[in-house]
Amino acid sequence: EIVGMGSVLNADGRVLTALSTLGDGNGIDIRYADGSVVHARTGHSDRIWDLALLVPQVGKWAEGLSASDGDALRSGAQLRSFAPGRGKPQPATLVLKNKRSLLGADEHLIRDVFEVGTKLGPKEFGSPVVDETGNVVAILGRACVPVEKGPCAPTAFGVPTDALRAFLRTVPASAIPPAPWLGIQGMPERGAIPGVRVVTVSPESPADEASLRGGADRSKSDIIVAVDDVPVATPDALSRVVGEKAVGDRVKLLLFSGGKFREATAILRPAPLKN
To answer: In whole angstroms, what separates CA 162 from the centre of its chain?
Structure first.
């Protein structure tokens, strides 16, 4: 079931959305524009501003949105938000009114937010509001209008880009996608076939499952010559190529041992947590 919309951060893969759509924050999946679905966790949140940053646990998504430097309230501005639909999200015209103050979570006053002049459906929260260039001027969240002598009235509002930037500046260093891990220790092999000689293979690692062989016997241990056809002559080069992949990626390893080449496929995972 779709619970809300979100914005993929440009060249990042993490998703900025409305916290209020996420429920207890467990069992969250992200569906990207290409239809791929990955599990995610909430890496950072702000109840007052109704913001959450979702961190994908597998895969990579390089294409995303950037903040606009334009005036969202300028005359003639053509703004759109998005709602879930069959297939891709459906764009719709959206009206932002003047900036005002509202009550965020726990009745904290939030200032200079956009008042939304368009009726929204319950699953549109978290959607970006984009201008004519496709850049983000706000993200849709929930707040309250103060009401004298009564409970506040729930309303939609647009979180402006300066508040979004402030939120992202406070993201903890741990709120990043897990790093891919192959599971070997190696040393440079500078012989006739350059590469990374496998010294040890971590038990139950992707390398172990791909049947890579390590050890002191040079006649039996594998040399990793290339990863996905990219030569790796040193452990640093191997780490760099693997680091450009993502958890869940399948990588093709070109290996050399016993005077013969062979290929193996490894499915990258995060490194196990240290006790």
So the answer is: 21
